[in-house]
Amino acid sequence: MTTKKYISAQGRTVDLGALVLKNETVRAVGNMGVNARGDTVDSLDRPIESKAQQTRRHYDRQTKGNVTNNPVRKTKEDK
Q1: Average pLDDT for residues 3-17, to the nearest whole number?
Q2: Quick check: 36 and 24 in contact, CB under 8 A?
Q3: How many CB atoms neighbour CB 40 within 10 A?
Q4: Closest residue by Cα to residue 1 from 50, 33, 32, 37
Q5: What's the pLDDT at 64?
Q6: What pLDDT score was predicted for residue 13?
Q7: How many Cβ atoms sit within 10 Å of the Cβ of residue 35?
Q8: How far apart are CA 59 and CA 35, in angstroms?
Q9: What pLDDT is attached to residue 1?
């Protein structure tokens, strides 16, 4: 992620990029049931669905959704 290292108030060096990568599979705090990457996880913190799969599913629902070849209503010519 980042290559920048920060120095804390106590003079210690903190690499935030390494910290994020180290903890990306840890369950996030809150009631959403996701880890730090955004993957949906179960009660044992095993990933159920990745963030990429969720995004793909939502995109497909938006683009392919309720498209049918049937007309919405019949016209005089259809009768």
Answers
A1: 90
A2: yes
A3: 15
A4: 37
A5: 80
A6: 93
A7: 20
A8: 21
A9: 55
Distances (CA, A) of 79 to 21, 74, 76: 63, 7, 5
Q: How far apart are CA 64 and CA 60, in angstroms?
A: 5
Say which amino acid occupies 74.
K
- C-alpha 9/C-alpha 4 separation (Å) is 16
Q: Residue 13: phi, psi to the nearest 5? A: -90, 130
Domain limits, the chain: 5-63
Listed as own residue / partner, the contacts of 18-23 with beta carbons closer than 8 Å and 24 or more positions apart are none
Tens of pLDDT along 21-41? 899 999 999 999 999 899 999
Rama region for 27: left / alpha / beta (φ>0; ψ in -120 to 50; rest): beta
51-78 tens-digit pLDDT = 999 999 999 888 886 666 666 676 676 5
